[in-house]
Backbone:
C-alpha cells in the first residue's frame, strides 16, 4: 500500500526525532505499507470517522493518525502521547483534516 503524508511538516516532525524513535517509526510505517487495511491492534487502533492511529511504543509513545483513501494510506498528523487518553483537541483536529480532503 502506498503511504502519503498530507503535510511535509508531519514527515519532518517524525523523522527528526531521536534515532531509536525514528527506527520504530520506520518499522511501524513499513508494517502499514506491507499490510495496508488488514493491519490490526496492537499496531493500529480505530479512532473515529474512518481515522486510525498507528501506534509507536517506546520511551516516546508516538501516535500517527491516518486514513485509508482509494489504495493508499494518508498520514494526517502525529503527536507524542503524554497521557493515557487522547485529547479531544487532537481527535477534533484530525477529523477536521479528514473533512478537508
Residues:
Amino acid at each position: 500500500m502506498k503511504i502519503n503524508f498530507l503535510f511535509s511538516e508531519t514527515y519532518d516532525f517524525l523523522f527528526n526525532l531521536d534515532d531509536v524513535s525514528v527506527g520504530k517509526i520506520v518499522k511501524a510505517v513499513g508494517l502499514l505499507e506491507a499490510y495496508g487495511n488488514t493491519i490490526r491492534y496492537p499496531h493500529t487502533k480505530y479512532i473515529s470517522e474512518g481515522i486510525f492511529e498507528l501506534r509507536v511504543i517506546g520511551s516516546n509513545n508516538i501516535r500517527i493518525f491516518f486514513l485509508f483513501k482509494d489504495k493508499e494510506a494518508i498520514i494526517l498528523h502525529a503527536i507524542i502521547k503524554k497521557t493515557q487518553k487522547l485529547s479531544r483537541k487532537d481527535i477534533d483536529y484530525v477529523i477536521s483534516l479528514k473533512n478537508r480532503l
About this structure: Strands lie at 2-5, 44-48, 51-56, 61-69, 72-81. Residues 32 and 39 are 7 Å apart (CA to CA). The chain has one domain: 2-100. The two ends are 19 Å apart (CA to CA).
